[in-house]
Structure formats: C-alpha cells, structure tokens
Amino acid sequence: MGRLKRTTPIVHTNEVCSRRPADTTGPRHGGDCRPAATALASRHRPAMGSGEGDAMAATALPSSGAPMPEDAGCDAEDLVFVHDAFRRLYAVLPTGVRKTPPEDHRRVARVARGVAMVGDALHHHHHLEDEYYWGPMQTRRPACTPHVELMKQHHARVAALLDASAPLADAWTTNPGAGTAEAFAAHIEEIGALLRLHLAREEELALPVMGEVFSQSEWDAVGAQAQKAYDRSQIFLFFGIIQDSLTPERLDAFIAEVPAAIRILYRLIGRRQYERSLDLLSAGTVRPGPYDAAARRGVG
Fold first, then answer.
1. 121: Cβ contacts below 8 Å, ≥ 6 apart
2. Which among 57, 61, 167, 191 has most CB atoms closer than 10 A?
3. Closest residue by Cα to residue 100 from 276, 259, 283
C-alpha cells in the first residue's frame, strides 16, 4: 500500500526520544530515550498481568549507538493507518461471529476464514516489525531497548492468542451455536484488547524513534516487502478500510502513492470485494464509508 505524505511532523508532545542536536558533527548516534512518564501516568492501562507497564520505568541505557544513515529520517506515519485498520477489524469481528446465523453453515465457515485471514495479516505485520525494525532501533538508539523489549513481549502474547484461535474456530464451524460462537467471539475480543494497548504503546514509544533512525529508502523497502506478502483479498480489505479512514486531503496523497495497477484493480473489483468482506465480517452491522479512526485510538 502507498506511503502517505506527512502533513504534520511525527513528534508527540510527550516525545520519548530526544532529537539530535542541530550542531552534531561526525557519525550520528542515537540520543537519549526517555519514558514519557507523565503521559503514561495519565492513560488508562488495562491490567496485563505480566508487568508491561513497569517496563517503562527501566533505567536509561547509554545513549551512544551504531551510526545512523546520513539520510536518517523518514515518514513513518503510514504505519498508524495500518494500525487503524486492525483496530477497526478487531472491533467488528466479535459481532460478526455472534450475529452469524448458526444454521447457515456456509456463512459460518466464510466468517471463520475471514477471521483467520485478518489474524494471518496481523501475524505477518508483527513478523515484519520483528525482523526489520527492532534490531536497527536498538543498535542506533540503545536507550530505547526497554521500549523495544516491550514491543517484543506484546508481539509474543498476541501470537500466542492468535495460535489459540484455531481450535475455537474449528469448534464453531464444526458445531455452530451460541456456545461455540460466544467462546470464539470472546477470544477475539481478548486479542483486540491486547492489540489496542500494544498499538497505542507502539505509536507513543516506538513510532517517533522509527521516524528518526530509519532513512526513507529503508522504510520504503520494508513497505515493499509487506505488500509482496499480502494476498489480493487482504490488500483490498485493508486498502478499503484505510481509504475510509482518511480525510479527503490525505486520501488524495495516499492514492497518489499507490501503484497504478492496484488503483485500477481496486476500482474494477477491489472496492466491491472490500464492501462484501466488511459486510460478512461484521454481519452487516458496519457499512463501508468514512469513519473517525482517531477516535478509536488509545487503550481505553
């Protein structure tokens, strides 16, 4: 999917990593990485049961690290829009499972496959971050290691929950009914709750660092890898949700970055496929169209 041109700087008011001084000379190294204690204290934190919040109080590590690229600095904002798509999907999937008529075995199977498809996309998204983002962040900004370790912990917990989905989905498709549907839907809600917390922490603690330590060419290369791994149904579903989340100005910039072949396919078949998929996965409770993605962010 295309890279959205940044319209505002990715600098949070509770910025977690100090910027390099303007007069820095010689090889550029990572600066301090400071927990945003005030902001974190003001947020609602669901009980995680494994001390994730405590990781933010870790002692700061030495600030020097591996030299960053001379052209370090990238537009990492597009990552938020992918996150928004996952937020929306995991908000509607439980309802889709609960409201699918149990007597319609074919539809039950299609919804279960759709849930698995979204889970596969989430697993792939986290795998790319694990493979391409965390290592360079730690070497170029060592003081952010506690934040990176927190992200890895979250990914492991999400992966475990995704793995545990399969038997619940099998039980529902084999014996559709209120009991099996509720067990599956409740599990999806558990994934969604953890995911909302993880994405909020990543956008607060890791995203500002990504925008500083990666070059644009490095960032774009990871995006190209991501596109190759998604199948067409996944691309159209996420492409449609992301489009619906953007303001007209940002949508124009986003579309301009999308390869012409994808734009044409989306107009011809992709939009209808996206609309059918969203209708299926939400059991008709969510209609395609503009929505306020920003209102869904956070952990509350």
1. 86, 230, 234, 238
2. 191
3. 283
